[in-house]
Amino acid sequence: MGRTDTQTSSDSSTGPAADPTPNAVPERLSGREIVLDEVVGRRGPWSHVVAAGDELTIVDLEGNQAVDFLLYDAADTAVRYSAPDTISAQGNVYLSQGSVLRANTGDALMTLVHDEVGRHDTIGGACSKESNSLRYGHHTVHQHACVENFLAEGARWGLGKRDLVSNINFYMNVPVEADGALGIVDGLSAPGLSLTLRAERDVLVLVSNCPQINNPCNGFNPTPVRMLVTRTAR
Length: 234
Fold this sequence. Notes:
The chain is mainly beta.
């Protein structure tokens, strides 16, 4: 299936290094065993296998940072997150506390058990060099984008372009107008807000800490996020 080890993330930008991981653990996680605690640098990728029953907490360290997110069954990556199945099952295009992230088989992969923001996008997709040049001009085609992050990180686990599906955009604000038009506007998050997902089976998580600078999804300034994997203390 690919690698099953963890990684230490680094800042893939040319700017200053990401701030070190804060010492404080979100209050909700107090008393839980910390399995992993890493900071994903601005614009960087990340991946990890989260064991069944463990929880993944994503902390928006500086606020207004979109986190593009893909999800696979760790034992069989042909079973992967499905936006249509997730949206259909819950009857809502947004994710919030209690939402179940479903696979293309209809099975539960992860559940959003705690959310301090209130709404997350399932339909805005991932930025790419191609979409950047189409939307914002050919001068942006060289800019690093989420699809490139997913391809680079997915390759570590034996995944390729055909394995990329419609992704979740945590913290991203994509309102749907009455006429069906979509917008990408200022986010709803703030520094230090977090969300927590419980793994319903062993899952492989791929993340692109969105590098987009041409629309407000990151406040035109990509920033680091913190990833914590925890489990019930023994």
